[in-house]
Records
---
Amino acid sequence: MTAPSMIPHPPLAAPLLPSDTLRLEEAQCCLCHAADDEPLAVGEDFEYHTSRDTYLAVRCRGCGLVYLKLRPADSELSRVYPPSYHAFDFSPRRYGLVYAVRHRLEARRLLAFCRGLSADARILDVGCGDGFHLRLLREFGPSGWTLNGIDTSARAVEAARAAGLSVRLEAVQELGDEAGRYDLALLIATIEHVADPVEVLSAVRRLLRPGGRVVVATDNSSSWSFRLFKGRHWGGYHFPRHWYLFSPTTIARLAERAGLEVERLGTMVSPVNWTYSIRNALTDWNAPRWLVERFSLSSPVALGVFTLLGMVQQLFGRGELLEVVLRRPIDDVERETPDAS
Amino acid sequence: MPARTPPVIIIGAGMAGLTAASALRRQGVPVRLFEAGREIAGLAASFVDEEGFSFDFGAHFITNRLAAAIGVGAACRDVRYYGESVVLKGKTYSYPFGLAASPRFLASAAGRRGRGVFGRKAPETAAEWLYESYGDALAEQVAIPIMEAWSGASADRLAASVGEKFGHGIGHTMLMKLATRVLKKAVASGYCNEQRESVHVWHVYPEGGVSLLCKKMAEGLEDVLQLQSPVQKIIVDSGRVVAVRVNGQEVAASAVMSTAPVHILSKLVEGTTALQHLARFRYRPMVFVNLRLRGRGLMQDVVTWVPEREFPFFRVTEAPSSMPWLAPPGKTMLTVDIGCETSDPVWSMPEEQLGELCLEHLRHMIPDIRDRYLGCRVLRTPIAYPVYLKEYEEERLALKRSTGVDGLYSIGRNGEFSHMLLEDLYWRTLKVVRGMTPSRPGPTLARVVA
C-alpha cells in the first residue's frame, strides 16, 4: 500500500492581490480571546487613502467589543501612519484657531486629571504622539513634575523631542526598569491603536505606584454618532488604525482584565467623530471638494456645531469619547517593584 | 498520557471546506483537508482564457462584506449595476417593475393577494406558493416554468421552501434599487440571509473570477491540503465519527466536515444507517454555455429569464454588462444556463453543437448574433442545484439541524443541501465551526473531543 502522496497546492503564477495592498492579519476579541463575532461595517481608509484595501469592523458576540477583524501587520505600520498623520504634527501653524481653542480646553481637562498630585509627581504619557499633552502640562502644571512620554512611532518621538520633551521610542511593555515609579499615566487616544489593550494596560499598571492612576480617553462605541454611522462611515473607526473600540461596558471589563480599579467612568465632549463621520460619507459619495472641506479638523464651524451637540449628548451620558480614570489597587504590590521614594 | 488529538478532517477544498479549514486553523485546531480533484475551489473555480475572457460556474454573488472578511477587498471591483429581465412572447420586461406594470400581471397578482387574507393555510408545494405570491398569470407564464426548467421537477413535487430566498417585500426591494441608483453601486438585496442587508453592502467581483476567494483562504493551508485524494469511506463507530479512509489508508479523525453532495455522503459513511435516507436527494445537473461575442450590452439586462418552454435554456447572463473587467474591451460573454439530466443528449453534446443550439434560439433577441459570434466555452456540473423535492422536505429540514452522527458535519451548498449563495455559505460555515468550538476562554475543540 502506498503512502498518501502530499501534493502541495501549486504555487500561484501571479500574486493574488495587487502589489499595493497591505499585509493583513486576523485579530480576535482581546477580552474574550475568541473569534465569535458578527460583521458591523466594511470601510476604507477614507482619510488618508493609504491603500486600496477594505476593512471589516466586527462586534464580539460574547462581550460586545467592536474591533477590526483584519488589521495591518506590524511591517505595514509606516504606510498606515503616513508622514502627514495628524498626531505627528498638531501645530498652531497647521490648525490655527482650532489649535488655540483646543489648547485651552485640553489644558483645563488635563489639569483636572492631575488634581491631588504632589508637587514632585511623575507623569507618563503613553502614546504621546508629538507631545501635545506633555507640552500643556509643562506649560500649565507645576515645575516640579517629571514629564515623560513614550511612543512607538519614530516620527512622533522625533517631533516630541524637538519640542524638548523627554520621550522614549518604545512599547510600554518594555519599560520594566521604571516599574512602580509613576503617579499618573495618560492614555489619550492610544488604547484604540494598540494590538493588545490588556497587555498594554497591564504594563501601565506595573509602572504605577500602588494607588497611582491612569486616565484613558478613547472613542465611545455607544455614542450617538456611532449609532448613526456604524454601518460604514463612523469617524471612530478611523480605518485601519483603530483596532479596538470600547463602550462603558467593555472598557470596564478591560480594566478588570488589566488588574485596575475603576475610579470614574464617564464620557466627554468631542466634535471629532461627528465631523469625520460626515466627511467620510461625503468623501465616499464623491461629494465636491469644497463641501468635504467644510468637515475637517480645521473647520471651526463644524467643530463648533458638533461641540454643542456633544454637550447635549453629555447630558444623556452618551458623549463621543470615553473618559475613564483607573487606579492601581493599593494592595497590588509586586515583589520586584523597586521603592520609588 | 493521551495520544495526540487526531485532526478535524475536511472533505473538499471548495469555498466551504477552505472556510472551515482556515477558521479551525486560526483557533489552533489541527486540520487536514482532502480534495478529490486536481485543483482547489470546486464550484467556485474560475477560468481565464487566452483572449482575456474570465468565467465561473455561472455568476456568483459576493459582496464587499465577504471580500473584506476574507481580505481580498483590494482585488475586487464594485459592481455598479445589476438588473433582471424576463422575455415573454418576444417582448422583454424588466423585473420586477416592468412585469408589474403589465396590466395582465398586475391584475392577477392583485386579485390573488386580495383573496385568502382570512384563514389562508401555508402553501405546501412550490406551485401553491407561487400561485399564492405571484397570482395565476405570473405563476403560470413566468415563475413556474422557470422553476421547473431550473430544478427539473414539476412545481407540484417541489417543496414550498424553494421560495425562501426570494422572500423580500416590494418596499424593501425598491429601497435597495433606489440606493443602487444613488450610490452607483449594486446594493445587495435578497442575497444573504445570515447577515443584515444594508445600503453599505453591495456586490463586488474579483478581477479574474471568484476563485480568488478560495486561493486567498488556501494561503497558509499548504501543509494540510492534499489534492487528488478522494475520501473513500467515513468510518463511524457507535454513532460517532472515528476516521476516514483516503488513498487506501485510514486516518483518525476527531471530527469530519464533509462538503460532498449528500447522496454521495450517504454512501461514504460506514458503520451506521443514519444517513441512508440522503441517498435519494437529487441535484440538478447544469450545462453553462459561455458564448464569446463581439460587442457589449447585447441583452437588455445582466440577467434575462426565459420562461417559455420552446427555449432549451431558462436564463441568459451577460456578466460583462455589470462587470466589464470579465471580458476584453469591445467584447462580451453570454452565459446560457441549460438545466438537464445526465441522461439527456444535451449533457454530452459537443461544444460547437451547444454553441449552435444557443445561437439558434438567441437569434430572436439578438438578430445579428451569428456575425458577432467568436466561439464558446462550456462548463458542466452534475450538481448545480439541490432539488427541494417535497417527498424529502422533512429530512432536508432535519439535516439542517444535524447529520445524526456525532462529529460529522455536512457543510456548504452541497453538504447542507441548500440554495444558499456564497456569502451565506461563508457565514453559515463559520457558525458550524463555532458550534464545534467553545467560544469562551476554556477548553479548545481538541480537549472537548479528546
Note: Residues 92-113 of chain A form the longest helix (22 residues).
---
Amino acid sequence: MDAIATRNLTKIYRGHIGRGAVKSLDNLSLAVAPNEVFGFLGRNGAGKTTAIKILCSLLRATEGEAFVMGQDTRRPATRKHIGYLPENPYFYEYLTPRETLDFYGELHGLTRAERAAEWEQLADLLDLRGIAGQRVRGFSKGMRQRLGFAVALVGDPEVLILDEPMSGLDPLGRRMIRELILLFHERGKTIFFSSHVLGDVEQICSRVGILVQGRLTTQGRLDELLNRRVNRVEIIAADLNEAAATVLAARSDGIRESEQGRHFFVKDMEAANALAADVLQSGGTLAEFTPIRESLEEYFVREQETVS
Amino acid sequence: MRVLAVARNTFREAVRDKVLYVLLLFAAAAIFGSKALGWISIGQDIKIVKDLSLAAVSVFGVLIAIFVGTNLVYKEIDKRTIYTILCRPMHRWEFILGKYLGLAALLALVTAVMVLVAAVYVVVLGGSLDATFFLAGLLIGWQLLLITALAVLLSALTSPILGAIIVFSTYVVGHATTIFTELPPHFDGTATKRVLQAVYYIIPNFSNFDIRAEAANGVPVAPGYILWAMAYGAVYTAVLLIIASLAFQDKDV
Amino acid sequence: MIARRLLTGVLAVAIGFACCVAAQRQMDASRKTGFDEELLYLPNEKLLNHFTGGLSSVVADLLWLQCIQYTAEEFKGEHKYVWLNHMIDTITRLDPYFVDVYRYGGVFLAALKADSDASIDLMKRGMIHNPGAWVLPYEMAMVYLLNRRENPGSPAQAAQFLQLAVATGTAPQYVIDLAANIARQHDLDEFERAMWEDMARNSSEKMLRELAQRKLHELAIADVCRQLGKAVQLYEERHHRLPDSLNDLVAGGIIERLPDDPLGGRFFLAGREVLNTTLQEEKLERRINRIRNGVNRYQARTGAWPPSLEAAVEGGDLVFVPPHPYPGRAWRYDPATGEVEGGSAPEL
C-alpha cells in the first residue's frame, strides 16, 4: 500500500469575468511508498501547493482521486494519518506554544494526559522549552517553523506533508529542518515535501517528482534520474611542467588554474582515465578526480525547456 | 470535544478584538446619557432611560455581532490559521459550529452585562424593575443569537464588508416585515400578495423579539408568547447554521 | 525646531476650527426652519411604525419630548397648538402603552387647547390599550367635570368614569373618595381650585406648576367678576339704576379702585354681570372649537358643509350651539367654506 497515491488528479479553477479558467493540476498521478522522503519540485505557480492542499482536503479536486495510507482524502478520518506544515504557517498570535499544541491536541481528540505527554516529547524534539511561555506574536521565522513542525507532529501521524519547509530560513534553520526530516525518516515516517530549492532536495530525498505547469513530467529515484548522464569529469593535477600542461589542455574541453593546480575538464570517463594516466606519466600528481553527474538543477532546467 | 475547543478559542480571540470595547463604550455612553433626555420630559425619566437602554443594548449588540462576526471566518481564511485546523481529522461543520458557539457565548455575555448595567442604573435613578424588563433583555439576546448565525454564515461565504452590509440590511428589513401583512385591500387575491406573504415568512421577523415598549411601560407579557418567540429564534438559528455548514463543506480554502 | 512646528500646527488647527464655526453660524442663520415646518415632514404614522427598525418606543419618547417643548412654547406664545393633535396621535401609535402621553396629552388638549372632544377621544384610545391604568378614566372624569361644565349630562358621565378608575384596583384613596362623594360634589369651583393648588404646589415639573398657576389666576379672576357683580347690585340698590361702566362704581364709592387682571385682560360691564376678557376669550376658544368640531364632523359624514349651525345640531354632530361669550354678539358662520368666526373682544 502506498503512503500517498493520486490518480488523475485534476484541478480547474473556474474563470471569473475577465479571466478564463485556470487548469492548476492536469492528471497528476504519483505514488509515494512508505518511509520514503519524496521531494516534490516545481517552479512557483506550478501547482505544488494545490496538490498538497488537495491531499489535506483543503481543496476539492475537479477530477481524480487522492489516497493517504490507502484511504480517500475526502474522509475526515483519513486526516488522522497526515501531519501538515503549510508554507508560512500562521497561528493564533496571542497563544503560547504550549497552549497552541494543547489546542491542536484537543482537535485531534487527545485526552488531557495524552496532550501533556505530547508536549513533553515535542518540546524536547523541537527545542521549544525555551520559548514555551512566550506568545507567538514575537516569534522569528525559525521559531515559527519549529512550532509548525510540532503542530504537524501532534497525534503522531505516519505521513508528514510539508509545503516549502525551508523557505525563508537562514542556513542554520535549513540545516535544522533537514536534520528533522532525516530524523523522522529514521523513525519510519513518510515525508512528502515541496520545494523549489534544489540543493536541499538533492541532499535528503530518495525520490523526486517534478511538476511543470500542472503536469508531472518526471517521477523516480534521484540516482536513477541523474545517473543517465555523466556530463564531464574534472581532473585537478599538480606539479605539471608547462609542456605537458599545454598538451593535456589541447585534449580537454576546458581548463582552469587555481592554487590547487591545473583543472582539466573532459567529456566522459574514458577520456578522463586516459588524461589521468598521462598526468601521472608526465610526472605530475593527481590532486582530484571528480566525475560530475548532471546536477539536479541542470536536469530541472532541461525539463522546463523541453516542456516549453 | 473538538467543537468546544474551537468555541473556546474563538471566544478568546473575539474578546481580544478592540472593536468590541469601543462599541461597549458607546453603548455605556448611550445608557448613561439617556438620563439627560429625561430632564426635558415631565416625569417620564425612567421610562426614557429604560427605552434608550434597551434600544442601546439591541443596536450595539447587533453592531458587535456584525463587526466581530462577519470578520470571524474570513479572518481565519485570510490569515491562513485555518489551514492547520481544517487538516485535522474533524468535520467542517464542527468548525463552523465551534466558531458560532464561541461568538454566541461572547454575545450572550455582552448582552447580559449591558442589561445588568442598565438595570442597576435604573434602580440608582429611583426607578423600579419588573420581570418584563429582563425578559425584554432576554429576547434581545435571543435575537442576537440569530443575527450571529447569519453573520457566521456570511463570513464563511463572502468578504466582511459585503457580509456586514447584508446582515445590517436584514436587521433593518426584518423589523419592517409586518408591512407585508398589512397590505391595502386592493391587493387581495393577487399573486403579488401571495409572493409577499412568502417573503414575510422567509425574512426573519425581528419584531417578534421586540417587547421593549412593554418593558419600558411596565406592561406584563404572556409567558407563552416568550416561549414561542424563543422557539422561533432557536429553529431559525439552527436552519442558518445548517446552511452555513453545507456552504462551507466544499469551499476551497 | 520642534516647538515652533508644534506651535504652527496648533495655530493652523485653531484658525481652521474658527473658520468652521463661522461657517456653521452662517448656515444656521440662513436656514432657520420654524418648528412647525418640521412637523410637516412627519410621515403617516402607520408607516413610521414599520420603518423605525424596532426603535419605535425610542422615537415615541423623542417625539414626546418635542411635543412637550412645542406645548411649552405655544403656552408662552401664541396659544394656537395647531400640531398638538397630530403629534400626540403619532406618538400613541408608535407606543400605545405610553400612558403619560394619553394623560398629559389629554390635559393639554382639554385645558390648554380647549379641545375637549379630542381629549376625550384620545383618552378613550388610551383606555383600550391600557385598561389597567387608573389615571386615564380619572382624567376623563376631570374633563367632563371641569372642561365640559356646560353640558347637562357631564356630572353623570364623570361619575361613570370615576367608577371605572376605582374598578382598576390601583386608584389612590383620594380618587376613591371622590368617586364616592361625586354625587354630593356641588361646588365644582372649590374642587377645581383644590386640584390646581395641589398641582401648583406639589408637582415636580415646572411646566405643570406654571399651568396650574395660570388656572388659579383664572379662577381668581372669576371670583373678582362675582365680587364686582355684587358691587353692581349694591350700586343699583343705592342709585336705583345700573352703572354705565365700571368706573361709575369707583366714582359712586362702592369700590376703591378697579382691580387689575394679572393675565392682561380687562374687566367690563355687561348688563348686570361683570365679565373679564381673559376668561371670555378662553370661553370663546373653547366654544368655537366645539362648533368647529361639530361642523367638521357634519362635513365628514355628509360630504358637504352644513347649511347652518342648527343643521349640525339636528344632524347629531353638535350637541347644542353654545352661546357667544360676549353679550350681544353672535357666531359668524359661512356655509360655503365651513368657517366659524367669533369676532374680537368689545371695545368697551
Note: The mean pLDDT of chain B is 87.
